[in-house]
Amino acid sequence: MVQIGRLRQKYSRASKQYTISVEKDDTTGNATKITWQQKAVENTTDSYPGVYCLRTSHADWDESLLWDTYTMLTDLEAVFRSLKSELGLRPIHHQITDRVSGHLFITVLAYHLVHTIRVRLKQANIHSSWSSIRKLLSTMCRVTVSMQCKSGDTVHVRKSTRPEPKQQEIFSALGVKSSPGQTVKTTI
Hints:
Elements: H1 2-10, H2 12-15, E1 18-24, E2 31-38, H3 63-87, H4 97-123, H5 130-137, E3 142-148, E4 154-160, H6 165-174, E5 184-187
Helix pairs in contact: 3-4
C-alpha cells in the first residue's frame, strides 16, 4: 500500500482519475488483489483524454475530411521539420527575393520527393513515419577501403554495405537496387 501511495503522489495528475483498492490476505497481510477503476473528473480537460476540438472556416467539410486534412498537415509539418534540419533549410536569412524563392523551391522539391517515397511505401503496406524511415536507412553507407600494393600503387575499393532485412524491404518497395551504387575500384 505504501508503494501505491508513493506512485499516486509521484503521478498525482493521473492518479486523480482512478480509484484504487487493495485486498489483503488476513493472515500474512500481503496484497492478494489490486483493482482500479477510472473515475471521471468533471469540468476538466483531464476528463476528455484524446479528444480534439478542431475549428475551421470550411463549413461544408464533413468530420472525415476535416480529420484527414488535419492529420495530413501534422504529417507535413513533421516532414518539413526533418527536412529543415537535414538540409540546413532553417533559418532563412535571405534578403534577396530570388534567393528566398530558390530556398522555398528546394524545400518544396524535397517534400515532393519525400511524399513520392512515402506513397510508394504505403502501396507496399509500409506505413512508417519519415523520421522512422530515415533512422532505419541511416545505417546504410558507402565504404572505401584503401590498400597499399607491393608495387607502390594504392588500390581504393568503394562499395555499399549490405542492407538489413527491413532496409531490403524498403528498397524492394521503391524499386531500388539493394546495394545502390556500383563497386568502384581505383588504382593510383
